[in-house]
UniProtKB/TrEMBL annotation:
Species this protein is from: uncultured spirochete
Protein name (database record): Outer membrane lipoprotein BamD-like domain-containing protein
Source taxon at top rank: Bacteria
Length: 132
């Protein structure tokens, strides 16, 4: 009798934890068509802060799709997506993405770009390849 009660309680606890876990695993909300680039970045950062790397990546992809023609937003999105790959443990993909960002600074209009993404990407490449 006592063993049966313990099993029932354990099963109920498992069900409760499962429901709680799956209710928190929601997909990111759609981005309104009129959302500014800053709003999309904010949404992405909120997902990242909530440890939802896939949700953050989704919003950075939206930023890239909608504002990718602006080189600074494009570099911002690509850097953040590369960093997410790093956080996921995908070292090779992250290094390749960081190198792509650095290469963008070889373009003729590089003087108009914020140096932030190049500096951060170079630091990440050095860290990930052990060439500090």
């Amino acid at each position: 009798m006592r063993r049966s009660l313990i099993r029932v309680v354990a099963l109920l606890m498992f069900i409760f934890v499962s429901v709680l876990f799956f209710s928190c695993a929601s997909s990111p909300a759609p981005v309104p068509q009129d959302a500014s680039a800053q709003k999309i970045i904010q949404l992405a950062q909120e997902r990242y802060d909530a440890y939802d790397l896939n949700g953050a990546s989704y919003y950075y992809q939206v930023l890239l799709d909608r504002y990718g023609s602006d080189p600074n937003y494009m570099l911002n999105a690509k850097y953040e997506m590369a960093f997410i790959e790093y956080k996921k443990g995908h070292k090779d993909q992250a290094v390749a993405a960081f190198k792509e960002i650095v290469a963008r600074y070889d373009a003729p209009d590089a003087s108009s770009l914020s140096p932030t993404w190049k500096v951060l990407s170079e630091k990440m490449i050095a860290e990930l390849t052990g060439t500090k």
